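Z., the sequence and structure:
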Amino acid sequence: MDKLEYQGTWNEVKGRIKKSYASLTDDDLAYQEGQEDQMLGKIQQKLGKTRDEVVKMIKSL
């Protein structure tokens, strides 16, 4: 399973994600250290993708 490793530039990444996936809200993309799984779960539900697909999508931005 791929691990999400984003720190420091999360606000930039979040902006690009929201531009590509308008259905995601700030609450869906709220990043708190140690709670990545919750955020990824919300994104998974909204987009209908697997966890690995979501992580790859985020890393590609």
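The first helix runs from residue 10 to 20. The CA atoms of residues 37 and 51 lie 9 Å apart.

Let me know what you think.
H.
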